[in-house]
Amino acid sequence: MIVYCMLARLPDGMVLCDCTDVKEEDEQRKESKKLMKALLRRASILGNRRCVVRGAYNSIYTSSSLNLICLSLCLSNYAPVLAFTFNEQLMNEFIRVHSPSAEEQIKRAHRPYVFLSFDPVMQSLRNRFNSSTSFQAKLNISDLTYELRCNPPLIIHPKDLLGGSGNDGFPRGTSNGTPSTWRQKTSPPVCIGGTSHDGSSEYQLEPLRPFHIGFVGITIILGLVSFYRGVHTLNMQTIEEYEGPSLFHAFAFLIEFAFQCLQVILVSFLLPLKSVLGHTSTAFIVLTSLSLWDVREVVLTFVTFLCGCLMGSWIIPHRRLELRCPRLYPIQGRRMDPLTAASDPSHNLRVGMNSVVNIRSNMESLMRHLSLSSVDKDDSLESKEKYLAAFQQKLQKISNDVRELESSLNALSVPLNSLFLLGSMGHLAQDPSSDKNALYPKLIQSYSWLDQLKEFAGVGMGIISLNSIKRTLVTSAMGRKTRRGFAATHNPPPDTVNAILMAMDRSLNDLTITNIFRPYGSNAVVQLALGRVLRALVIFRGLMIESVVIKGFGESNCDEETGHLNPWKQSNFKVFRKVTENANAAMLHYYSPVMPDLAVRSFMTWLHSYVDLFSKPCSRCGSHLFGLKPPTWRDFRDLSAYHDECKPTW
């Protein structure tokens, strides 16, 4: 939890506001506040970089922006990501309350605690972070987590702020001294002598440039050649009549190889006296090149001389340093740092499973101890105490494992990178399997989308109710008189359905209704014949078309074995099966629950356009056949004939 927080001015560290609701302060809290004040006196050195100071019980997290620095004192087990999120939100709230001249007000502040009126806002935000995990579940900390991994906070050791040691694990003592590790510059210093100006390990060598890598590679090759020739010359000295390079040349080759290796090491690693060693290696390589002038090729000697001079006199001394990105917490052994543990569900799962295994093992050991060991009244006091001590020790182990299991379960209860809490489905995000990890974010996205759709629909309904849509200029009284009544589509009388169908039979010449029967209650099943081209079986539910089956003119709708009607049997011809698919698509296209009689009439008109199925050419390609099939598609608007491959794609 967050114990205490304060806001201060970055250049001089003057406190602008802090929490005043802290009633009782123990020694640990007092020592931590001293450390925070010592940190503020050196706030100008930090700049806008996040910092962490860790103790045994409490931790301090700092964030700064716009000449404003926020310090929060939290318990050591509090998630660092949440602490930095609290700092960011607190600074944003301060700037929002005092906008638009927040930066000018901070600069004009002439005494401490000028903005003490901001204290209720600080307490409210701190209580929201400390209250429960419901508020933390609404935080979007994924961006901040990624930023902390790419640019870790600066680790400040407590001994660099105060001297001695306190009860909190923080050092205590005077804070007048300025440790050497605080004398760091904002830009990387030039490496003079191989180390940084402050002698700390916060710096590292800048990455090698391409031409640096080229010279390093050439130096390695030249060194291997010198080593080979030196060893070869030493071996040839055993031959009596050998007239080649002498023993002096052999040692010159090996010395040259040694200093070339030294140059490669100086380029690769940060070592003390780097510049001095670089110039020394250059001098020795020049001397060995001159001594080997008469036994080595001129070109090879010139390349060795040039690479040695550039490496030792230019590349090694002028390779700059840069700030090292430290870890938020050092990893000791296999222990994971709190930042990674808070954002890695698999770590919490492993800890929980190990705790369950330990609990089962310790419980089995406890039951075995109770069943095999016994204490009688006649036993001595020492044996009774040993029995009780062993029993208490096993209970303590079980209690520790249960506490660890509860902590891991609490860490898994709410996924911190989610915007919504979806109950038990939140545990899907903890699954270490890669093919299931993406399920919970997709559920979150769907839930967010549906929530926004519901909100927009409510807003749109309110706007529509305020602005009624009228397509005519008639008055409301006249509209009520002339308004057309809607047909009851759910359960209309059979006579109404028959009347509508017979009216369509009379209006369409080639479309004939051969039979209307109701084998499934009051819903009608209609058999149609379109000229001598095809037959259709249309199943109704009320006045709504449920299904359409198209067959050839000579095919039957009855089962051959039983002789009963089979409305689900498809045609034996591929052409009519394709027309059946298009008819079902037309049925869905003309669907209208408000005016079902118009929908049925539109569908029948569309179906009537198949009267010239085998005689009408395609409206696009002009052919009667395409792939041995006639144009089986009819446009929904102008009833034009198309092949499936030629139909428009709008």
TrEMBL record:
Pfam families: Longin, Med27, SEC22a_C. It is found in: Membrane; Nucleus. Residues 173-187 have a biased composition (Polar residues). One of its GO terms (biological process) is regulation of transcription by RNA polymerase II. Residues 168-187 are annotated as: Disordered. The keyword Membrane applies. InterPro entries: Longin-like_dom_sf, Longin_dom, Mediator_Med27, SEC22a-c_C. GO terms for molecular function: transcription coactivator activity. The chain crosses the membrane at residues 211-228, 248-271, 276-293, 299-317. Keywords: Coiled coil, Membrane, Nucleus, Transcription, Transcription regulation, Transmembrane, Transmembrane helix. Residues 381-408 form a coiled coil. GO terms for cellular component: mediator complex; membrane. It comes from the Eukaryota. The keyword Transmembrane helix applies. Belongs to the synaptobrevin family. This is Uncharacterized protein. It comes from Cyprideis torosa.
